[in-house]
Design goal:
Elements lengths: L1 H5 L3 H31 L1 E5 L14 E6 L1 H5 L15 E5 L7 H13 L13 E8 L4 E5 L2 E5 L7 E2 H4 L25 E5 L4 E5 L9 H4 L2 E2 L3 E10 L8
Antiparallel strand pairs: 1-2, 2-11, 3-4, 3-11, 4-9, 5-6, 5-8, 6-7, 9-10
């Protein structure tokens, strides 16, 4: 190797090193831009289960618009929310903060492995749900349909009357012998959401892995909203 290196002139050696530096700078710059975009602007995610049927099916992929920047500027403006009723959102249920160094190293591993490997467990506690209740709402459930009285209103409405989007949840067929006292029977007593609390649900109402089990979620745990469905191509468009 040393002999091969000596056959180059000093100018050739410097030119070779300069090319290496340029390539390294491009790779590093692309990595930084990719990290910032995926962490602060947009990301993609696949829905891997049936919780959002019938509107969203397993295997469908979405581009999500991140709320990281918006949440940074919510301080002193608690009334502002970057999402609306009825929107499909990503809820982060991680109870503890990830170590900064390990998170940065994880970005590197995922970047150079084309997202195939991660330093964190596969179950990352990120859930795709629909926003139903906003801060200050009084909400209840009757036969799996939410009824909502916004803080600024006198009257109660169904979730569909207040939603910004049209959707049709999957409602279980109840037996005539069904007891309303059974947990998650499709009925819920009224609760009042706090000033920074939201209520999120699965579209498949037979699934209870949502605010019915977690309780209301802090607004800042809603980290992104679905922007566009890009796979399969036959269902390309807004979710």
């Amino acid at each position: 190797m040393a002999k091969r290196w000596r056959q180059y002139s000093y100018a050739d050696q410097q030119n070779y090193l300069r090319k290496i530096r340029i390539v390294s700078i491009w790779i590093f710059s692309f990595f930084i831009i990719h990290t910032l975009v995926s962490g602060l602007v947009v990301s993609n995610r696949a829905v891997e289960n049936n919780t959002m049927r019938p509107g969203i099916l397993p295997g469908e992929r979405f581009v999500f618009l991140s709320f990281a920047v918006q949440h940074m500027f919510r301080t002193g403006n608690e009334g502002y929310l970057p999402f609306q009723r009825g929107q499909i959102v990503l809820v982060d249920r991680n109870t503890g903060k990830k170590p900064v160094f390990r998170t940065a190293l994880d970005f590197t591993v995922r970047f150079f492995s084309l997202q195939r490997y991660s330093l964190f467990p596969k179950e990352d506690n990120l859930y795709v749900k629909r926003v139903i209740g906003l801060p200050g709402d009084t909400i209840s459930m009757n036969n799996y349909v939410m009824r909502i009285k916004p803080a600024s209103d006198t009257y109660e409405f169904t979730e569909f009357e207040l939603s910004t989007l049209d959707y049709t949840p999957e409602l279980p067929q109840l037996s005539l012998l069904w007891d309303e006292s059974i947990p998650f029977s499709g009925f819920m007593d009224s609760i009042v959401l706090g000033k920074d609390e939201c209520f999120v649900l699965s579209d498949d109402r037979s699934v209870t892995n949502d605010s019915r089990t977690w309780g209301p979620v802090p607004a800042n745990t809603i980290t992104a909203r679905a922007l566009v469905r890009y796979w399969p191509l036959t269902r390309l468009g807004h979710p």
